[in-house]
Amino acid sequence: MRQRELLLRFVGLAGVAALLSVAGCQSAREKMQELRRPRNTVLQLSELPPTLKLEEGRASSFRLCERSETQSVHLLQLRKDAVLNERYHRHHDLTLLCVAGSAIVQVEGERDFVQSPAAVFIPRLRAYKIIPHETETEFAALMVYSPPFDGEDLVLTEK
């Protein structure tokens, strides 16, 4: 009788230990699914223009739109007389998606004219500068940083 009781306790404890060890074993995908939002986020470009008005007296704006563990999306707005001075990022890759207006985007000295729906890929450590083109529409672009932008690796190469 005593042996049976000990055996039952041992089997019970072993079962609990097995359940606890399995509960902590998740794949990277399972962990990501636990942390993600209930649905994916979709930024509709057609819904952005009504929000693109810069505040009176401001030449530029840089606002966070969305952030995840692996990337962040920001909205950059520049009036036609504003310039985003040359800079680079030590640890961030950048994708610039033009959504309104037009600009000259200079990457490592090479200049390209961009307008919606253009995309410019700027790898880390590559200097870039944005000069709005003379139009009535403000320049606006979504800037996708990977990893998420924190501002700590930004290096201005001109002032």
CATH fourth-tier homologous superfamily of the largest domain = Jelly Rolls
Shape: elongated
CATH topology category name of the largest domain: Jelly Rolls
Tell me the number of structural domains: 2
- Helix fraction? 10-25%
Give me the secondary-structure topology.
Layout: H1 2-23, H2 28-35, E1 60-67, E2 72-78, E3 84-89, E4 93-100, E5 102-107, E6 110-115, E7 119-122, E8 128-132, E9 139-146, E10 154-156
Antiparallel strand pairs: 1-2, 2-9, 3-8, 3-10, 4-7, 4-9, 5-6, 5-8
Q: Can you give me a brief rundown of this structure?
A:
This protein has 159 residues and is α+β, with helices and mostly antiparallel strands. 19% of the residues lie in helices and 38% in strands. It has two helices and ten strands.
Structure description:
This protein has helices at about 1-25, 30-35; strands at about 60-65, 70-80, 85-90, 95-100, 100-105, 110-115, 120, 130, 140-145, 155. By secondary structure, the protein is of the alpha+beta class. It folds into two domains: about 1-35; about 45-155, Sandwich (Jelly Rolls). The longest helix is centred in the N-terminal third of the chain and has 22 residues, at about 1-25. The chain is elongated and about 95 Å long. The model has no long low-confidence stretch (mean pLDDT about 80).
